[in-house]
Automatic annotation (TrEMBL):
UniProt lineage: Eukaryota, Viridiplantae, Streptophyta, Embryophyta, Tracheophyta
Keywords: Nucleus, Transcription, Transcription regulation
Protein name: DELLA RGL1-like protein
Organism: Boehmeria nivea (Chinese grass)
Localization in the cell: Nucleus
Keyword ATP-binding: no
PANTHER family documented for this protein: OSJNBA0084A10.13 PROTEIN-RELATED
C-alpha cells in the first residue's frame, strides 16, 4: 500500500493548484480529522443512514496478449476468442504454476500437462496471474513461507509457529495439488510438498475439500455429470458441524451452484425460476442491487473499497470541474447518494468562484422510483445546510434503449460529469442496452466519467475458465467478509447467502442470456470505451492520497491494498484484485 512518503506529498502539496489544495484540505478536515472513523463517514452519512432506516426498502481479460483492439458490446457479451469447449481444469491451474515462475522441475511438469490437445486462454487466469506475479509473487512473498529454523524440527514444533493460511492460499495449494495428482509425470520434488505436512488439521481438511470441488468442476466441463455429482456428495463429509470457516463457506456455495448446473444439464430442473427444489423464484440480484437496504448499507460501512471509491472518484471530479460555477452530475446508479455529500462539502469550500448551481440527475426505472425520490429529498436537505444551490432530477426509462439526450435538462454553461459505480457490468448481457447508454453519454460530452467495476473475468463462455476465476475471486471475497463482519451477524448471513450466492449461481449455473452476472477486467473496458472516443486519465496524487487516507483509517488496512497500474486504481484483498476505478474524458 502506498504511503504519503511514496508519493512525496510534501512536495506535491506545494505544486497543486490553490483550488484543489483548498478542496483537499477541506475534505480532509471535515471527513477525517474531526468526523471520520473506520465505520463512519461523518455526521452527514449518519444523517443519511438514519433517514434510510426510517424509509423501508423491504421490496426488497479478455487480456489476451495485451490486445487493445476496439470491441463491440456483442464482444463484451461473449468473447469468441475463447474456445467454447472447456479445457481440463488441471490445464488452467497448471498455467498458474508457469506464471508464478516456479522452479524448472515444476515447469517441466507443466509442459507435460500443456502437451494435451487443449485450447485455453490466459484471460480466465488474469486474476491469478496478477496475484501470483504482479501483486504477490510466490517467489517473493511466498504463500507458505519456508521455515528458516532447523529442518530437523518435528511437525509439532513447526506447527507451533504456523500462521493460519488465508482462504485464497488454501485454494491455491489445493489447485497445485490437483495439478500434481492429474499430471502424467510423477514429481519427485514438489516445492509445496513439505508445506502440506505443516498445515493445521483443519487446513489439510479444507485443501482436500477444495480438491473435490475442483475435480467435480472438471467433470462438469467434460459433461460427466454423474461422476461430478458423486464427487460433490463426498464434500458433505468435510463440512464442520458448527460454524464454517471461509473456505468451507465458499466451497459450500460453489457446490450448490454446481449441483444446480448438473440438475439443469440432466433435465432435473427445467428453468432458472425452478432451481433445485426451491418453491420460490430466484432472487433478482440486479434489481436488488439498484435499491439500498440496511444490509448493503451495513456492509459498505465496514468495507474500505466502497469508501475509497467514493473519495478518490469525487476528488477526481472536483479537480476536473475546476472553477465551473454550474456543475451537472449524472449518476447511473445513485443508491443512497452519500457520495454527493462529499462533493457538496468540497464545492462549499470554494471562495473565489462560488457555486451557482449543483444539479444531480440519476437514471432509474419504475421499480426504483420511490427510493430515488427519498434520496433526492435527503440530498436537497443536506445541500440546504451547506448553502449550496441544488437541483435534483431523475430520468425514468424502462430500458436503456429508451434513453435519449433530450430527457436530460441542461442549463447554459454547466459542466457535466458522469459517475458509474458498478452500473455498466449489469448490462453486459444486453449489448444493445449498453451501446445505447454509451451513445447518449457520448452525446452529453461530459468533462469526466468515473467508472468503478469488479476486476475479474466472469464472462468466458468456457465453463471451466469461468469457474476457476470465480472460485479464486469469491474465495478472497469470503475471506474479506470473515475479517470485516462477525459470524453471527444477520447482515453477514444475508450478504453471503443471498447477494453473493446469487452471483455465484449466475456465473456457474446459468448459460446464455440467463447468465446475468458478467464481469470483465479493465482491459476489456478500455478497448470498449475507445469505440466511443474515450481516453483514460491518470488519477492525481491528491486522489490517490484521499484513497490512502481512507484505507489507513481501517483496522484491516494491512489486508486492503491500493495499487496504481497504468492509469487505473486497483483495490485488492490480501493480494487478490477485487475492484478497479478509472476516470475518462471524451475526445
Amino acid at each position: 500500500m502506498f504511503s504519503s512518503e511514496d508519493f512525496g506529498f510534501g512536495e506535491m502539496r506545494g505544486k497543486i493548484s490553490t483550488k484543489c489544495e483548498e478542496s483537499l484540505i477541506s475534505m480532509e478536515k471535515f471527513d477525517f480529522e474531526n468526523q471520520f472513523s473506520a465505520t463512519d463517514f461523518g455526521y452527514f452519512q449518519d444523517e443519511f443512514l438514519a433517514a434510510e432506516q426510517e424509509y423501508s426498502f423491504s421490496k426488497y481479460q479478455l487480456q489476451q496478449d495485451q490486445q487493445q483492439q476496439l470491441i463491440s458490446a456483442d464482444e463484451l457479451l461473449d468473447d469468441h476468442r475463447y474456445n467454447l469447449v472447456s479445457p481440463p481444469l488441471e490445464a488452467c491451474l497448471a498455467e498458474i504454476k508457469r506464471l508464478d515462475e516456479a522452479p524448472t522441475s515444476i515447469q517441466n511438469d507443466v509442459e507435460v500437462v500443456k502437451k494435451k490437445e487443449v485450447s485455453f486462454s490466459l484471460a480466465s487466469l488474469g486474476l491469478l496471474y496478477r496475484h501470483g506475479s504482479g501483486f504477490k509473487r510466490l517467489r517473493g512473498d511466498r504463500i507458505v513461507e519456508p521455515n528458516t529454523k532447523d529442518k530437523s524440527m518435528s511437525n509439532d514444533q513447526v506447527a507451533k509457529d504456523h500462521q493460519k493460511q488465508s482462504t485464497e492460499e488454501i485454494l491455491r495449494i489445493a489447485g497445485m495439488r490437483f495439478i500434481h495428482s492429474s499430471s502424467q509425470q510423477a514429481m519427485v520434488s514438489h516445492p509445496f510438498q513439505w508445506s502440506f505436512s505443516v498445515l493445521l488439521p483443519e487446513e489439510t481438511k479444507n485443501v482436500e475439500l477444495v480438491e473435490l470441488l475442483l475435480a467435480s468442476a472438471e467433470k462438469v466441463g467434460f459433461r460427466n455429470f454423474e461422476s461430478a455429482r458423486r464427487l460433490l456428495n463426498l464434500c458433505d463429509n468435510y463440512f464442520s458441524s458448527g460454524a464454517r470457516d471461509p473456505v468451507q463457506r465458499v466451497v459450500y456455495y460453489f457446490r450448490e451452484a454446481l449441483r444446480e448446473k448438473i440438475d439443469r444439464e440432466t433435465g432435473r430442473i427445467a428453468s432458472k425460476s425452478s432451481s433445485r427444489g426451491r418453491n420460490h423464484e430466484r432472487f433478482d440480484l440486479d434489481k436488488a442491487m439498484t435499491v439500498p437496504d440496511m444490509t448493503k448499507i451495513a456492509f459498505h460501512r465496514v468495507l474500505p473499497f466502497s469508501q475509497v471509491e467514493k473519495f478518490a472518484g469525487i476528488q477526481a471530479i472536483v479537480e476536473r470541474i475546476g472553477d465551473s460555477r454550474k456543475v451537472h452530475v449524472i449518476d447511473l446508479r445513485i443508491m443512497n447518494g452519500v457520495q454527493w455529500t462529499v462533493l457538496m462539502q468540497a464545492l462549499a469550500s470554494r471562495r473565489d468562484y462560488p457555486l451557482e448551481l449543483l444539479k444531480i440527475t440519476t437514471i432509474g426505472s419504475a421499480d426504483s422510483g420511490n427510493f430515488i425520490e427519498e434520496t433526492g429529498k435527503r440530498l436537497s436537505n443536506f445541500a440546504s445546510t451547506m448553502n449550496i444551490p441544488f437541483s435534483f432530477k431523475k430520468v425514468m426509462v424502462s430500458q436503456m434503449l429508451d434513453l435519449k439526450e433530450d430527457l436530460f435538462e441542461f442549463d447554459t454553461d454547466e459542466l457535466v460529469a458522469v459517475y458509474s459505480s458498478f452500473g455498466l457490468s449489469s448490462m453486459i448481457s444486453q449489448p444493445t442496452q449498453i451501446e445505447a447508454l454509451m451513445r447518449v453519454i457520448r452525446g452529453l460530452n461530459p468533462c469526466i466519467m468515473v467508472v468503478a467495476e469488479v476486476e475479474a473475468n466472469h464472462n468466458s463462455p468456457s465453463f471451466v475458465k469461468r469457474f476457476t476465476e470465480a472460485l479464486f475471486f469469491y474465495g478472497a471475497f469470503f475471506d474479506l467478509v470473515e475479517t470485516l463482519m462477525e459470524r453471527d451477524q444477520a447482515n453477514r448471513s444475508i450478504v453471503e447467502s443471498m447477494y453473493t450466492f446469487e452471483a455465484i449461481r449466475s456465473i456457474v449455473a446459468d448459460e446464455g442470456e440467463e447468465r446475468k452476472v458478467r464481469h470483465v477486467k479493465i482491459d476489456v473496458w478500455r478497448a470498449f470505451f475507445q469505440r466511443f472516443g474515450m481516453e483514460e486519465i491518470e488519477f492525481s496524487q491528491s486522489s490517490i492520497y484521499q484513497a490512502n487516507l481512507v484505507i489507513n483509517r481501517f483496522e484491516c488496512g494491512n489486508f486492503c491494498t491500493l495499487d496504481v497500474i497504468g492509469k487505473s486504481l486497483f483495490l485488492s484483498w490480501k493480494g487478490t484484485p477485487l475492484q478497479s476505478i478509472s476516470i475518462w474524458k471524451f475526445l
